[in-house]
Amino acid sequence: MTKTEQILKKKPKKWITNLIFTFAIIIAIVYSFSDSRINWKRFNSVGSYLNAMLESFADIDVDFLLGTGLYRFEEGVLFLTLETLAIGFLGTLIGAILAIPFSFLASTNIVGPKFAKLGETFLIIIRVFPEIILALILVKGFGMNALTGVLTIGLHSIGMLGKMFAETIDNMDRSSIEALDAVGANVWQKIRYGIIPQIVPELSSVALYRLDINVRSATILGIIGAGGLGATMVLAASNWNWSVLGAIMLSIIVMVLVVDGISSYLRNKLV
Amino acid sequence: MVAHLNTTKYWVNDMTRFVLTNGKSITKPFNKIWIILGILIVLVVFFSYFIQYDPRYIVLSELSVLFEKLFTPRGTRTWSDYFAYMLTLKDPLISTLQMSFAGTIMGSILAIPVAIFAAKNIAKYPIIYVPMRFLMNLIRTIPALILALIAVMFVGIGVLPGIIAITIFTFGIMAKMLYEVIETIDMNSYEALESTGANKIQAFRYAVFPQIFPIYISYLVYIFEINVRSSAILGYVGTEGIGSVIKDNILYNYDRVGAAIIVMFVLILTIQFISNLIRRKLQ
Fold this sequence. Notes:
heterodimer; A: 13 helices; B: mainly alpha; MetI-like fold; 3-stranded antiparallel β-sheet; 73% helix; flat; disordered N terminus
């Protein structure tokens, strides 16, 4: 037996654990599909639906898209898209402003490790609470309008933004503050010249990233009446109105790509 | 402060220009913050036009009424009914998990080949990786909910449209995250294996796979967590799960909605906790 073979024999035998894991995952997948309520025959008609869908996507209602002709401007996809953008943008702004005090509460640098843990837990709870449920609750108080959407996005953003802001504050370089201390700067000067130049680029970069997410989620808030494209979209889908749905999907894709592009361009510039 | 500067070293000419005693002048760079603030204000004013609301419908007291309705038993029902109802939510809970699990696994598996062909260091020609990236960017722009809407139109209500929507959604994120990981890996071992005569598949298996596998699993767990959260929304368009329970009861049975929200929240927190645990182990 050569040395190579000896070393090869010493190699830990992992195939048993691998087999068990693979088996467990396969069982879990099979179980996930084991639902007898899945109607596999529906797949037969997928082809004809796909045909109908593609045909009407190619034949998009331009009047509806721009809100001209038969439609009022407020009903058109263009207005709704701008409304969706507005919900995403203003929601992110409100979220970013609200997140600053919350991030102080979750930062070890400012409130100490024990309080920070508490603040962090609070932020996790905000973060994992589904937006749509939050919107459902807020709709009762603020009515079925875009304002509810803005508030939902704003409140939901606090969770992630607060956490990221707290991390930025914790990772801040403190030597510049000490240097300012040494030359006799007062508290405001320390904040203005020591803290703000350090954290603002990172905070804005996080907020821009969140804007990207928020514009995506603003598209769906409409289903429960919180403004934006969602309401028209669900209505079109339940009426099998493919050409309207196509117009809405087109505008969502364009909007998301544009916001994604702007957001990542600005983030690259900031870093 | 200005007086002090005047008498000793330099004097202030205007807001942005300082002239030193030796005759040299320093111009303070223009602070771009005012431009940014200006743009921001214009954007806020522009977008505020689109936020139309009727102040008559803002009734904040409704919120506390709603909270009471959500988290106390309705009418003649008792607290034991409230908790008993929570236990009956076992089936939708399992549907939610089934949907998320099956979708996550299938989407992640589908993402592997696309991610490999989208990575610049493996697929060396733009003609291969550019269309792949375009495909995944396009898929990623469509929210999971719209995918579910369309899937419901195609295959009817039930668990299946949820699985399809989550599969496509997972595919989009996973392919993007994975190809970015593949691009950052160390290619030396891949080249070393190729030079010893291994073919591309063998080289991938022994040089690239061990580097990306732990990250892949950790992403998988993370996406599963996202999917459990988003399947709450999917219930709104006709897939089964906790979301549909909320939708069915929202018009008359607020206490059941409240119970479902609590159950869903506990589920999401549990999944989040487990996911964090697994991901920390993997790192």
